User: Fold this.
Amino acid sequence: MRLKVCLEIVDLSKYFGSIKAVDHVNLRVYEGELISIIGPNGAGKTTLINLISRWLIQDSGSIFFYGMDISKITKPHKATKLGIVRSFQLLNIFENLTVFDNICLALLSKYNKSFKMFSPLSRDKKLIEEVHRIAETFGLDQYLDKPAKGMPHGSKKLLDIAMAYALNPRLMLLDEPTSGVTTAEKLPLMDIIKRAVSERGITTIMVEHDMDIVFSYSNRIVIMHSGKILAEGKPKEILESAEITKVIGE
Amino acid sequence: MKKKSLLYIGIIGIMALLAFLVPFFLSSFWIFIIGYALITSLIGIGFNLLLGYNGLLSLGHAAFFSIGAYSFTILMKMLNIKSFELLLLFALAITILFATLIGFISLRHIKIYFVLITLAFNQTIFALIYKLYWLTRGSDGLTVPTPIILGMHLEVPKTYFINFCFYYYILVLFIALTVIMWFIVNSPFGRVLKAIKDNAVRVEFLGMPVWKYRLIAFIISCIYASIGGILFAVFNGFISPDYASLLFSSEIVFLTILGGTDIFWGPIIGAFIYSIIRIYLVTITIYWQFILGAVLVVLILSFRRGVSGALTELLSKFRKEVK
Assistant:
């Protein structure tokens, strides 16, 4: 069966002065895949995520999302509306709002209800139900009425991802979803994420440093080094390559 | 929750009843103070949509107050239109035009840049009002003729019209615009504004263009300031460039912070305290500015979350003790 291409990156480059953060990168991502991008610090992984999510604008090259050239998009909200969403390496949630409001905001955006001025939210039963459903999927239902800042770090990471998930994306970019989370919490957290994205068949690109997670959860692994893609392949192929394992070792 | 709502409804009901009784029991002087407080309350709740809900500090609201007041008065004199409502619509159209233009320029840059751009705009409008003597009568100010409200030709003395008819007009508009603002801040749009204050980057990544929400909030806020200016022009019967000054912009900021920006009713409480202290002190001492400054410093230092914040804390303490 021929797989549908979700994302195609063609000869993409981004420089910061003399630093080549992303250097002539080519990558094809198929629908429904969970790809992990790994590599040492400064390899260009987060820059690549920032370019795809349109937080950064490339110096050259193109990005195609389901055949549509998105490299001319200069605002992240436009990419989000196309179905490209992301979570962040450093927590990026609404700390002072309740967990309910955090998820609710994503749904308001999804259903284009965010400009409504004269309809109290309490009347939108469908939306409230959906907030509860998503909170349940990510194990956040116990915190719904509490300010997000009061939650444990692992739950905050899940909320960050739950907000992205609530937008019902076609491509989800996860920048170090388990960073700062205790070792004991990492696998349960990844199980929740994997289950959620698999249920909806969301194509996922993840940047991650924990190799156990990368090799357990990914369909394909992309290795970056000094802004370039050094290798890509299935977890098993990567493990068998001596050259690659040397880079991973760095 | 139900008890809390009942308590709030009860308090609001009593306040509204007291406000309705004002012209029957109080002197013209106090009617003016209460009317002025209602007008500044309106400006305050509009201003708080920006400051409290969106985290944007504008120093240009006196300009919008004056744009409303002056365009209303000038149009009334030039076009010889007497209908308050028609003039209000014209003046608001001019306000929206200016607000869109200034918002478009200033909201691309936030924090200190936004403050500075709105300040510069305020000073420009102040200078224009001061210098365009042929239109605004400069520092002499403009007297405001009595308009026709709701199409009714009321043949009553001017004092009666202002202290009775127009006072109620202000009160009804105040209630209507407060209810509208309450709906706005509790609507999905209001929630997005609060989210922008908390984390604008994430709002953008949730697919919502932050500057559009800021622009709409800015325009609504300016409309409230402008309506305040229009009501004041008629109520006071006179307008001058003083109301376009930075000092008046600062008063709007001050009364909002004094009342508290966290709570919806905060600016209303702040406006009443500020207006009563300010106008009352003017009548009893020539050193009113000194006393006003001292009283306000004490109030601000005593109530870090504003008077409304302190009242809320007191109320929750009282509830705990009763339990």
About this structure: Residues 26-245 of chain B form one domain. The first strand of chain B starts at residue 142 and ends at 143. The beta strands of chain B are 142-143, 238-239.
